[in-house]
Design a protein that fits this description.
By secondary structure, the chain is of the alpha/beta class. The protein has helices at 8-16, 32-41, 52-60, 70-73, 97-107, 121-130, 154-164, 184-187; strands spanning 22-26, 44-49, 64-67, 82-88, 108-116, 166-175, 178-179, 190-197. It has an eight-stranded mixed beta sheet with strand order 3-2-1-4-5-8-6-7, with helices on both faces. Strand 6 and strand 7 form a beta hairpin. The mean pLDDT is 90.
């Protein structure tokens, strides 16, 4: 599987999710990943999305999605309501990332978190040479227009997981369309972690 809807992180997430499980996708966008998981893995799929137009498109795909803020939506679910809680390319946009991650691991047995790695060499180089907020193909926004409010790296996430006592079951690092193994904090554009409570 090379990609799902043109996104390699979706493909990795698709590989990590076991068939016939209960899945909640936080910040699910137009529901592409949920629809794919329902069709190919026969999961019980649910989603939360803030933007009304995206919610409508997700519902049109036939997935169960409701409009709401993912940070407050976590409070609506009981402990262990899901097998997987997914947060793809959204952690850096949340107001309280630690609260979100703890909430994911409360309501689900496992959390799958994918995020852009701000430690990637192109981001570092952009910041070093321009003397301005990094602007690259992966981060095309101006600082005042960016949805990103937290700038985390692979090492930052690893340190947080260790500090919280979470078990990192899988780590997959991507650059372009390929997986990278060496020096992921420097070479990975996107990191995907499968985490459970320790």
């Amino acid at each position: 599987m090379l990609d799902v809807y043109g996104r390699r992180d979706y493909a990795i997430i698709g590989e990590l999710v076991e068939p016939k499980t209960r899945v909640l996708d936080l910040g699910c966008g137009e529901g592409e990943l949920l629809a794919w998981l329902r069709e190919h893995k026969q999961v019980e799929a649910r989603g939360v999305e803030m933007t009304a137009a995206r919610v409508q498109k997700a519902i049109a795909r036939g997935v169960s999605v409701y409009q709401g803020d993912l940070e407050s939506a976590l409070e609506d679910y009981p402990d262990r309501a899901f097998d997987y809680a997914i947060l793809s390319q959204t952690l850096q946009e949340t107001r309280d990332p630690l609260h979100v991650l703890r909430g994911m691991l409360r309501i689900a047995s496992r959390a799958i978190v994918a995020f852009p790695n701000f430690g990637h060499w192109r981001v570092r180089l952009s910041h070093l040479w321009s003397g301005r907020a990094p602007k690259t193909e992966l981060f095309p926004h101006d600082w005042y227009d960016s949805p990103n409010i937290h700038f985390l790296t692979v090492l930052d996430f690893e340190q947080l997981a260790a500090k919280q006592g979470w078990k990192v079951e899988r780590r997959i690092f991507l650059s372009g369309g390929r997986e990278v193994k060496a020096f992921p904090n420097l070479t990975a554009e996107v990191a995907v972690f499968l985490v459970s409570r320790g």
